[in-house]
Amino acid sequence: MSDEAKKTEKTSWFQGLKAEFKNISWPDRKTLIRETITVTVVSVVLGVIIATLDMVLQYGINFLV
């Protein structure tokens, strides 16, 4: 492949990338805050559930041993 063909490929790839970035629809501030809070709350709740299950199973195994 010649040098000119490589340069053309990269240029068209970057142009395609630029075009794709123009198509992205970013969320507004209110939506972003709401979704961030939701992810944080769900993560904390799952962490508490996993920690509780871990403590219960550890207690049960220690009781058996």
Automatic annotation (TrEMBL):
GO biological process, one term: protein targeting
Keyword terms of this UniProt record: Cell membrane, Membrane, Protein transport, Translocation, Transmembrane, Transmembrane helix, Transport
UniProt GO cellular component terms: plasma membrane
Segments crossing the lipid bilayer: 37-61
GO MF term list: protein transmembrane transporter activity
InterPro entries named among the record's database cross-references: SecE_bac, SecE_sf, Translocase_SecE/Sec61-g
UniProt-annotated location(s): Cell membrane; Membrane
Residues in coiled coil: none
Protein's membrane topology: Single-pass membrane protein
Pfam families: SecE
Domain of life: Bacteria
Family stated for the protein in its record: Belongs to the SecE/SEC61-gamma family.
Reported function: Essential subunit of the Sec protein translocation channel SecYEG. Clamps together the 2 halves of SecY. May contact the channel plug during translocation.
Name the record gives this protein: Protein translocase subunit SecE
Phylogenetic lineage: Bacteria, Bacillati, Bacillota, Clostridia, Lachnospirales
Gene label: secE
